[in-house]
Amino acid sequence: MSVGFRLFSVGLLAALTGCDHAQDTAQLQVFLQAAPAGSTTAPPPIPRVDTARVVAYEAAGLRSPFQAQFDGRAGSWQLSLLTAEELDNDRPRHFLEGLELGQFEMVGTFSNDQETNALLRANGLVHRLKVGDYLGRNNGQIVSIHPAYVEVFEVISDGQDGWLERSLSIPLKQQS
């Protein structure tokens, strides 16, 4: 006999000697003697489970809780009459086009004789922008600068060779 077989046999015998069912069978015998002879008690009925109530999800059109909320001047998306050729997709992208519009807050304006600039803060830095500058991930472009807000026009693809557009405002952050 090989050494492996001997070790296996010794282990098997040790495991089997640890399996003493005398106590378990004694409890079973006591339970069976306590039950009346010949009684056939049916198990309790299975409880009835009501079907789940179906609820329609009605929040699909609401703002995502993970996007910043604007002050009510944000417009809704609508169909655009723009064509792909009218969008300048070959232009070099600016750093601010990698940020969500919700990250921007207007902190002031800067004017001289030629133009008015908006001072927008994003990621802790203040950026000086003028009408026509791009920002945000959805082809956002500044269309007007006012003392109390900056108006931004966004255009995104609808996924079916068309475009959606909206106009929204970034309000001036009031000092507290």
Description:
With 176 residues, the chain is an alpha+beta fold. It is 16% helix and 25% strand. It has two helices and seven strands, in the order H-H-E-E-E-E-E-E-E. The strands form two sheets. It has a four-stranded antiparallel sheet with strand order 1-7-6-5, with no helix packed on it. A three-stranded antiparallel sheet has the order 2-3-4, with no helix packed on it. Strand 6 (149-157) and strand 7 form a beta hairpin. The chain is elongated, with a radius of gyration of 37 Å. The N and C termini lie far apart (89 Å). 10% of the residues are buried.
The residue fraction in helices comes out at 10-25%
Cα distance spanning the termini: 89 Å
Rg from C-alpha positions?
37 Å
Structural class: alpha+beta
Mean pLDDT: 77
Order of helices and strands: HHEEEEEEE
Instruction: Give the number of helices.
Output: 2
Strand order of the largest sheet: 1-7-6-5
The major β-sheet equals:
4 strands, antiparallel
The rough form would be described as elongated
What is the β-strand count? Answer: 7
Low-confidence stretches: none
Write the layout of secondary structure elements.
Layout: H1 3-17, H2 22-34, E1 78-79, E2 105-111, E3 116-122, E4 125-129, E5 141-145, E6 149-157, E7 163-171
Concise structural overview:
The chain is an alpha+beta fold and 176 residues long. It has helices at residues 3-17, 22-34, and strands at residues 78-79, 105-111, 116-122, 125-129, 141-145, 149-157, 163-171. It is built from 2 helices and 7 strands.
